[in-house]
Amino acid sequence: MLDSFKKHLGKKKSKEGTQLETYKDILEKNPDNVNIRLKLGDLYAKKGDKQAAINEYTTAAIQYAKDGYLVKAIAVNKIIVRLDSSRQEALDRLSELYFQRGIAADPLVQSYRESKQQQEEQEMAEEVQEEQGELPMIEPEEAEFVIDPDT
Prior knowledge:
The protein is an all-alpha fold. It contains 7 helices and no strands. The chain is elongated.
């Protein structure tokens, strides 16, 4: 009797598994349903499948932005960044969305912008150095300036 009960439990689907199947079925019939995508993202995140969650959230965020719901798009992109802070495309979208809204970015996006700007400046400096040959760059604080009053 106990064995048949264990077999029954093993065959029973989890609540999340059932919900996943239901939401996937709904999404097949209506792929533009952002609410279902968000629910799927939540379920995947709850199950520990970050990649699948991020995929659903990304689709939802892009759709929100396309439909003009910038605040919702910002919120969903923040969820993506919380799941994986190395997601540059989500940080790029956040930066663009903040720009479209005409507001200063939150500290996370601001630090990303600054690091990206520093990286671009470094790449430009390296390109200039390559074009000019292998000339060493002198930092301003290392240079000695002599002012000759007679000239």
